[in-house]
Amino acid sequence: MPGFIPRTPWPADFPEVAIHSVQKIRDSHPFYAAAKSGDPVAAKALVMDLLAMDAADRLGRLLAGRRPLVLAVTADEVTGFNVIPDAMAQALAAELGLAAAAGCVVQSTKVGHTKASGWHRLVTPPLFTGDVVAGADYRLVDDHVGFGGTLANLRGFVEHHGGHVPGMTTLTETREARHSAVRQDVPDVLSNKHGYELEQFWRAEFGHGTECLTNIEAGYLCRVESVAAIKDRMAEAAESARRRGFSAGFEMPPDSPGGLTGRA
């Protein structure tokens, strides 16, 4: 696990992720499997069928005179190279009269998040590499938002390198995942449940505070009984991820309270 994941806090007015379709329709689409596995022709056909013009219009209104670069999540997944985000970026850029930042920033780790557990997602954070234009706005694009960690990490990468992310869009979402920015009351709930111990642990492990979590991530941690249990489940997930060939460096010292020697 890298010691520093470059995330940034969410502004109070950060907009919802603009969603274009629903999973049931996407999953039953005849070109979805091929598109998810790297077929660019299938990806273009899928996107042209499912891209919602009302969502595109909403994105256009949110631009407010800005001319952001459209940046897709570029990732090698278990089923192959996922070309759906790039097809979306190209289509949206054409529709909105913007430029697509194709290949400028790419995901540098293979994380296997599709249909993965929340714990697997937390211990295998996607990392990015590439060039960001300092001072430029970027509209982020992915095919799906679940926990929201991939988009949050890409946003953090862009903003740590001088860019700005005014919004994000995906083809589909897991329920309520469009609310990526942590809601105002959630940090208080998290603090009341786990105190400063979780904040200390999160900063030491990931290099950012809990204010940078997505709303889904924060809610997930709120439902766990203790910080010791969080550490234990993360250690187990990391061990499982490594056995499957994914990069996950989190390890709980054997003598730590609530570690692998005993769950709190």
Separation of the first and last Cα atoms = 23 Å
- The helix fraction, in percent, is 40-55%
In the CATH classification, which architecture of one domain applies? 3-Layer(aba) Sandwich
Give average pLDDT, whole number: 88
Structure annotation, total helices? 10
CA-atom Rg in angstroms: 18 Å
Which sequence of SSEs, written as H and E, runs from N to C?
EHHHHEEEHEEHEEHEHHH
CATH fold description of one domain: Rossmann fold
For the largest beta-sheet, the strand count, sense and barrel status come to:
5 strands, parallel
**Low-confidence parts lasting 5 or more residues at pLDDT below 50?**
257-264
* Alpha-beta content class: alpha/beta
Gross geometry: globular
User: What proportion strand?
Assistant: 5-15%
The largest beta-sheet arranges its strands as 1-9-8-2-5
CATH class of one domain: Alpha Beta
Strand segment tally: 9
InterPro entries: PRTase-like
Account of the 3D structure:
This protein is of the alpha/beta class. The protein has a domain of 156 residues: 3-Layer(aba) Sandwich (Rossmann fold). Helices cover 42% and strands 15% of the residues. The chain is built from ten helices and nine strands. The strands form three sheets. A five-stranded parallel beta sheet has the order 1-9-8-2-5, sandwiched between helices. Strands 3-4 form a two-stranded antiparallel sheet. The protein has a two-stranded antiparallel ribbon with strand order 6-7. InterPro entries: PRTase-like (IPR029057).
